[in-house]
Amino acid sequence: MRSSGRNSSGRGDYRGAGGGAARSRSGGQRDDKPKRAGKPRPEERRYDVGGSASEGPKKGRGAAARGGAKGGPKQSPQRGGGRTAPARSREYETRAEERNRERYANKPRTGTPKTFPGAEQEGERLQKVLARAGYGSRRACEELIDMARVEVNGEIVTEQGLRVDPAKDEIKVDGLTVATQSYQFFALNKPAGVVSTMEDPDGRQCLGDYVTNRETRLFHVGRLDTETEGIILLTNHGELAHRLTHPKYGVQKTYLAAVQGPLPREVGKRLREGIQLEDGYARADHFRVVEQTGKNYLVEVTLHEGRKHIVRRMLAEAGFPVDKLVRIAFGPIALGDQKSGWLRRLSNTEVGMLMKEVGL
To answer: Which residue out of 225, 279, 323, 337 is catalytically annotated?
Structure first.
């Protein structure tokens, strides 16, 4: 017969810490001996997650969630049973500020230490100016300085950290002047039918239609006839544009002209010696026949003048009217394989070559 201390399921009647003293196995009587404090059994452990407000602040994950570790407002304890310190008046704060100013008025000021030699100098670091001008990262510009390829005001720079004034100092890389200001330089392959002006009151297609999305106002360098194709420069550098078009600097322009032959040999000599036009003599710097297909000739004419229709008028006066005319080079800037109607930004080397051409 089973003991009365067991229930009908056959399992012992074990109670936790809140259930009083454990019953003895033999007679079911209470054991009045005090229970030895020890590590609680797994079923007797308590995990305070959540709970009612009367139980006080809990520890563990529940407190973290309430206290801000997992999000939520942090609860800062208040001193004095929840009392807050009285706010100071504006007059009190003003008097305190005046006292602090009087206290530190006669004390000497301490200057901030210099982080590197020459920090008291004005200007910008040379590698920073070169990087802003488009010569690569600052590290790449430092390598240019290490290779002795950079000069400032005619002297080659051999040390890092030189400070310069971009508005006053003349900076060159490989002998070419660096455009340190916010200048822009573009080359456009002007199609036939486009007017060489930035705005046209008659609504015709003009050069300004190709740069309408630019923040800086650009203007064209020289002109091309409406029916003449080829390279034309656009920039906001006024002095460079003036020198490129002034006859004093003699910047050469090269054209390809399609004419009908046959061409006698003395045509080139006559163009180089000069042809009398209604507004004076016009001379070509260079002339050669590029291609011949039957009576169709493709000739190259180079000259440094910029008068209106100068190439067309010279060849027509020589007896060979022009069927098609394309400008393939403006100074050192060649048209190359640039497509008609395409606009491209000039490289730093090309800008330097243009400035060298006119002494900038």
So the answer is: 225
